[in-house]
Each structure stands twice: as structure tokens, then as C-alpha cells.
Amino acid sequence: xxxxxxxxxxxxxxxxxxxxxxxxxxxxxxxxxxxxxxxxxxxxxxxxxxxxxxxxxxxxxxxxxxxxxxxxxxxxxxxxxxxxxxxxxxxxxxxxxxxxxxxxxxxxxxxxxxxxxxxxxxxxxxxxxxxxxxxxxxxxxxxxxxxxxxxxxxxxxxxxxxxxxxxxxxxxxxxxxxxxxxxxxxxxxxxxxxxxxxxxxxxxxxxxxxxxxxxxxxxxxxxxxxxxxxxxxxxxxxxxxxxxxxxxxxxxxxxxxxxxxxxxxxxxxxxxxxxxxxxxxxxxxxxxxxxxxxxxxxxxxxxxxxxxxxxxxxxxxxxxxxxxxxxxxxxxxxxxxxxxxxxxxxxxxxxxxxxxxxxxxxxxxxxxxxxxxxxxxxxxxxxxxxxxxxxxxxxxxxxxxxxxxxxxxxxx
Length: 412
Hints:
Blueprint lengths: L3 H17 L9 E5 L8 E4 L6 E4 L12 H14 L7 H5 L2 H13 L4 E5 L2 H12 L4 E6 L4 H10 L3 E5 L4 H11 L5 E7 L11 H10 L8 E6 L14 H5 L6 E5 L9 E5 L1 H10 L1 H4 L6 H14 L2 H23 L3 E2 L6 E5 L3 H13 L2 E2 L1 E3 L10 E5 L6 H19 L1
Parallel strand pairs: 3-13, 5-6, 5-7, 7-8, 8-9
Antiparallel strand pairs: 1-2, 2-3, 4-10, 9-10, 11-12, 12-15, 14-15
């Protein structure tokens, strides 16, 4: 069999992942959603776990939009009108009115001239950065940027790539000074919210630095921010890290429909010229089907909901629960990274203890994600909790009680 020798190599690599504890293929399968009731948020049944109910604290659905009845109804109506799939890439015949309506709504939401949607946020990052990076471009990137940014830089092959230590703006500015006049274009790229830690980029300061060095590059210093975890969950009205930091709008904003908006897909918002250019040059857009018309309609409804008094109430509730959980962790003697974003990391800083605590949580009906090396640097091992607006105070108390029991168990 021609494939047998390579399979031995692949099997050895899988075994190595299993040994280090970094394998990801054994996925938890959600079998059923139990609706919120009796002061508790939704509970989930897992394949192989019988009728045991789980509190989900490892999901990106910060506003609970995926279970919002109006969002679900919007998708159902659009599916009945347009079917379940677009049937083609967009430039052939895969563009439907809900796609256009969503792009217009996102542009207005972010006060940009235009927006365009992709099949995912990962595809958006790859499909936006690669066309913008030329051999005469220097890219300057935060050390803790998302994997999608790292792979986009590998694929694009810029003239130079500089990495600055996480949030070290003095290093960022030094890189700009050292490369001015040597490259036609500079691109600063950063996450808005850093998903493993829940901390944020100081976009206000980054944009000011970019503008101060802009004259040193014939084709500008361009700021690109991937705020997939920020939009919908951060800032007074959910407009993300730009809003929270009071930043001048970044040049190119990437975000997602698959987290706070509860649907699927990603998008980029920028000037009309930049968006037109990406529609002509981005292979991840040109050669991939878009999200379905139903998903686009659902996403539009989710944006409308966020941009309303109901959305303001959801954000206020989300912030209150996040503060309650952070305060509870501190009172129990756990280390965390304070912040208003609903990603709340419990810093364990030890692989064995992280694994044990995740197992304890799951045994007691709490789903949370343990992050060990090499997903995070050695010494930064953690459990990432994610608060959602469909959680309740009772849910937070339940999770804290399970964590308190682990503390007691460790002392015995």
C-alpha cells in the first residue's frame, strides 16, 4: 500500500502530541441544549455523558446571540426565502441581498465607508493581510498575536518582519524608526483583544505612533487590528477596543460574526478603495463560497440587537458578571489578569495542576479550557474562562463554588 510508510510518520507525530498533552482531536461533542430556567442559564448535554448537565464557560458567544429567538427567526426566514447555501462564489452568482445588507450594516456600525464578509475570521485575516503586504513592506507585529496573523505573515513574505514584545510600544516605535526610508509601506498588525489573556492593545497609542512615523514611508504606516474578541463584547456600545481606548479608527479593522454576534463568518471594514482592492485580490474571498444568506440575515439581526437598548442591557449584564467572577477568583486566592473583557484567565502556571483543575471542573459540570505549552508559553499555563450574557449570577456562584472545592481538595 503506497500510503503505509507515511502513515507511520504521521502516527509518530500524533503520538508525540498525545505525550505532550497538546493534542486537540478528542473533541467534546454537544448533544443537546437545555434552555435557561430557574435562574440558571442554558445547560448542555454532552455525547457520552448521559443526562448530566454542563455549564459552558469556554465559548466565544459573549452576548448569547446564538440562542436569541429573534436572531434564529431571522435566519429561518432567510433560509426559506433563499435556501440553505449560496451555491457559488460571490463573483459568479453567490451574492444574495442579505450579504449586501450585512456588509452595509457592518460598515455603518463601525463608521467605515465599506465592509466585506468572508467565510470565517481566520480567512478574513489571511485574505486581508496577504494582498496588502508586498516585498517592499515591513510588517511589525505583537509577539502574542493570533495564529491567523502569524500564518498570514508567513504566506505573504514581506520585505521585513519585526516582532515587538507584547504591548511594548517602545519597541514598536523603534522598529518604525529603524525601517523608515527602507520600505515603501509599513503595516502594524495587532490583536485588539488577546484571546488567551483577555488583555487589550492600546490602539489609541498605537495609532498615534503610526501617524507620527507616517512620513517615513512613501505608502504610509497602516494600522491593522483584528478585534474579533473585542467587537460585540468590549467598549461602551460593543464597538470593541477602538471604542474602549478612545482610539482614532484604525485603517483596517478585522472582526468576526462567530463570537459575540453568535453566527458564522468574518469581515473587514475599511475605506471604499481598500475594500474594492480586496474584492479584486483576496483569494480567500474570490475563490470561497460566502456564508449562507440565512447566516447573513441572522448576523444583521444580531448587529441590530447589539445596537439597541436591549444590546446595552446585555453589555451591562456581561460586565457585571465578569467583575463578579474576577472578584470571586481573587477572593479564593487564584491569580488572574484583571480587565473588563469577558475572557477571564485563571493563571495556574503549571501543566499538571492545569490538567487536574480542568478535570475537576468537568467532573463537577463546568466546561472550561485549559491552555498548556506550546499553546501558551511555559510558565503561562492557564484556564481560560469566558463569561456570557446568557450566564446568570447563580451560574457564576456555581462555578466559584466548584473552584473553592478544588482549593480545599488541594489542602487535604
